[in-house]
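quick one before i forget lol
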Amino acid sequence: MHVFYTPDISSDIYTLNEEESKHCSRVLRLNLGDVIHLIDGRGGLYEAEISAITKKNVQLKVLNKQTKFGKRNHHLHIAIAPTKNIDRLEWFLEKATEIGIDVITPVICDRSERKIVKEERLEKVITSAVKQSLTAYHPKLNQAISFTDLISQNSDSLKMIAHCMEGEKSYINQITKPFQSYLILIGPEGDFTSAELDIALQNGYKPVTLGNTRLRTETAALAACFETNYINR
C-alpha cells in the first residue's frame, strides 16, 4: 500500500506537490490508473486513482474517503527534554507516532544537555512515521519551551511528572481512566532538579513512576506513551 501525506487536500481532485509527485512517478514508478492512499493528518483516509502524470506533478482523483480513521478515545501530550543525541529523540517521535500520540513538546530543563531543537527535521520524522504506520492523525510538534513556561501554562489535562527521586509516586494506571486528556512530563538524563519537581507539584502535576529501573529519556517517554494507550485501548 502506497501512502502519501496530503494535509491540504480539500476536493476530489488533488495534485501531489513536486516532491511527492517525483516519489510517486519516478521512485515508485506508479502509472495512470494505479490506486494509492492519502492521509490528511486530521483523520481523513482517502483512496485515490492516478488520473494524470506530467513532468513535475501527479494528479489524483479521489475514489473513497473515510473520516475519523483510527480515532482514539483519549488525548495524549508528552513533554520531553530533548536528548543530547538527537537520533534518540527522533526514535521516540517515530515510535510514539506509530503507537499513538497527539502532541509532543520539547521542554528545556535545568539539566538538559540539548538546548536547541530543529523542528523541521523532527516534523519530517513524524510525517514519515505517519505514512509508514497509516496513521490518519498527524501529531502536533510544538516549539521547544522552557520548563517554567510549560509549567505555568493552564491545562485541563491530567498532568503527570515522571521522575526518579525519592517520594510517594503512583503508577500511571493507578491515577488514569479511559476517555481523558493527559499531559506527561519526561525529564532529561540527569532527571529533574528537586526545585523543578517542587514547582511541578505546586502546579498540579502528579508524581508517577515507570518502574523500578532507571530508563533513558526516550525509553521513559515511550513507556509512558505505550502505557497510556494500553489503558485506553
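fyi The radius of gyration is 20 Å.
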